[in-house]
Amino acid sequence: MRPGVAAIALALFAAPSALASITVATNAARPALRVDAKGNAEVSWTAGGARRTLLVPVRGRVLPGARLPGADVSRPATAPAVPFRRVLRTGRGGWYYALQSWRVVPGGSVELRFSRWRGAPTSARLVAESTSTGVLLTGTATFAGRPVPTTSRTPEGKVQRQYVYLDRLVGGSWSRIGGVVLRADGSFRRLVAGVGAGSRYHSAIPGPNIAGVTYAPDAAAVATAS
């Protein structure tokens, strides 16, 4: 395996944050998407002065370095709204394809992430309520109008828990509070002890893998303590 391809594979399968929506690369420049009539998607980007590619087939493992077997039939899209968006396209059959980028691991690299879905995207809701002991964070995560599953699979089939990542605005920058697992109804809660009212909070949720075909987009929400 060529060094560039090995680096891509490492980003895909060894990154601690590689959950359902697929982590393609880190610190990627000029990302682009192409989709053929069958729904196979080719992600391309620039890293280390070279153009890289990753093929995401309709089913099965992703293929670092591979190219799209057919012509691109996708079109640019402006809706639905998804956070962290870099590229959004629509293909045949009402499918959406997106590239999002965000710093999943605090202090880590910005990850470029791929998703593919139909219908309503992943949605996040966050409420921050000041209490006598701190700030109680509660919220929900849904996909296609249903609770986000409590577990999801990576492209190679590894089962992982679905987490909501919580951050707090401190001194003008966001700092990670931690992660909290989703309940079966898509809800979560976390008490942040000793934090004064008025602080802003942020939740981010990696989109789930549904049946090995749908890679739902990541979602995010922001709330100010009441």
**Biggest β-sheet: strands ordered side by side in the sheet:** 1-9-8-7-6
Radius of gyration: 18 Å
Q: Averaging pLDDT over every residue, what do you get?
A: 87
Largest sheet: 5 strands, antiparallel
* SSE run: HEEEEEEEEEEEEEEEEEEEEE
Shape: globular
Tally of separate domains: 2
Work out the number of β strands: 21
Poorly predicted parts:
1-19
Structural class: mainly beta
Oligomer type: single chain
Number of separate helices: 1
> How much helical structure, as a percent, in the residues?
under 10%
Question: N- to C-terminal separation?
Answer: 53 Å
Strand content: over 45%
Can you describe this structure in just a few lines?
This protein is mainly beta and 226 residues long. It has one helix at 3-13, and strands at residues 22-26, 29-35, 41-47, 50-56, 63-64, 75-76, 85-90, 95-102, 111-118, 123-131, 134-143, 146-147, 151-153, 159-161, 163-170, 173-181, 187-193, 200-205, 209-210, 214-215, 219-224. The strands form six sheets. It has a five-stranded antiparallel sheet.
Task: Please give a handful of descriptors for the protein shown.
226 residues; mainly beta; Immunoglobulin-like; 2 domains; five-stranded antiparallel beta sheet; four-stranded antiparallel beta sheet; 1 helix; 5% helix; 53% strand; globular; disordered N terminus
What are the SSEs and their pairings?
Elements: H1 3-13, E1 22-26, E2 29-35, E3 41-47, E4 50-56, E5 63-64, E6 75-76, E7 85-90, E8 95-102, E9 111-118, E10 123-131, E11 134-143, E12 146-147, E13 151-153, E14 159-161, E15 163-170, E16 173-181, E17 187-193, E18 200-205, E19 209-210, E20 214-215, E21 219-224
Antiparallel strand pairs: 1-9, 2-3, 3-4, 4-5, 6-7, 7-8, 8-9, 10-11, 11-12, 11-17, 13-14, 15-16, 15-18, 18-21, 19-20
